[in-house]
Amino acid sequence: MASLTQTMPRPQDSTGAAATAPIILVLFLLSLIMPSYFFLGGMRLTPTRLLLLATFIPLLIRLLTGAAGRIRASDVFLMLFSIWMVLTLVYHHGMERFPYAMISVVELLGGYLIGRVLVRNATDFTLLFRCAFWVLVVLFPFVIVELLTDRNILQEISRLAFPTYVKADSSYGRIGLNRVMAGFEHPILYGLFCAAVFGPILAVLNRGLLSWILLVLFLGFMTFASLSSAPLLALAIQLGLMAWGWMTGGRWWVLVALGTLMYVTVDLLSNRTPVTILINYITFDPGTAWTRILIWEYGSAEVWRHPFVGIGMNDWIRPSWLTSSVDNFWLVVGMRHGAVGAVLVMAALGASLWAVMRAKGLEGQLAQLRRNYVLALVATYVVLCTVHIWGDSSSMILLLIGAGVWLSEPVHITRTQAAVPSKRPERTLPYSRFPLKTRHLPANGAVSRTETRR
Prior knowledge:
With about 450 residues, the protein is mainly α. The chain has one domain (about 5-10, about 15-440). Helix content is about 60%, strand content about 0%. It has 18 helices and two strands. The protein has helices at about 20-30, 45-65, 75-95, 100-120, 120-150, 155-160, 185-195, 200-205, 210-225, 230-250, 250-270, 275-280, 285-305, 330-355, 365-385, 390-400, 410-420, 450, and strands spanning about 40, 45. Strands 1-2 form a two-stranded antiparallel sheet. The longest helix is centred in the C-terminal third of the chain and has 29 residues, at about 330-355.
């Protein structure tokens, strides 16, 4: 891996901080849109899985030896969950499921490690989301064709040499259009990718009112093409939170208090739970909404029947006419690996988010990057209550979670910001409170390992 990262000059930001491993980040994003796979020893391998297998051990060693800063709570919880996932699957299925358990660890922990270890400064962070934007630009013509004609050109090209994904029955068209998969395994996963990078791309590429509007329209259209309510909800949450932050000057605790009050009020006055009402109103199809509600009721009952080790990959108790598909990431984890597994995952993802939210000393564009990144994670966590992620897309979400950990290291950031004074005051626009131009992107590239561990 070291030789791979040294084969080309590393991009730098205005502070001179070099990108940690730009080639690997670019390859990862490109691998996501390659709808091909092959089997080796009964194991399905995709381009993303191959990259994760090649980088997993080196990145894990770098994390454990302190090369990526001190060990964080999110690192510990996610490693504990990885161990627990293997133990529960072996407990239920014996060594037959051991290869599946290990590749699941590589997908989840491996994706997280790429973001956690290889995104260490503002150069890495902006590179990641600039590349994500250009990946979407490359996908744009393919998305148009698939949306209007239901022809997936990427799959047709891939099918010439490798097996490729097949559009499932749940991927049927809506409102007279066809749901777009592009290079992903399902339209929801494609839409979730677009929605998850929405806020950070705005922060990285926004240079004024016109660019902000164009970016919102482009990213909004790309997300809409999935014709999935969950990704559109993620976009709506991010835009709503941006509007709240502008109108209130960032009084987030007021929003939390109002949300809690609203939840309690609805729960007391309605004969339906707030979650039921939310699911009912955010889906395209009312039938789909009620199906998800029933899945939640029967699935959560299964979790409490097996709170410690879950049920593994075994079937769960439900009416014969209810689908076996569970559209809830948190619930799937709880059903397969017990409440213990669900708590470990929630603790890992929550600890990462909380550390970035509490970071001090962020100014200028770093503060903007942190704000939009946090909003994207909040929206993604909420939407994972209504969708499940698997395969390469689970690696993508975990990479995004790991990619923001460096923002919670204020010692590095404060030193760098002090060394890069702004040449002139930043101007802000009322629609976003974001700087029109930022000539300097502070980063933590020139910090010794001793300082990293403080």
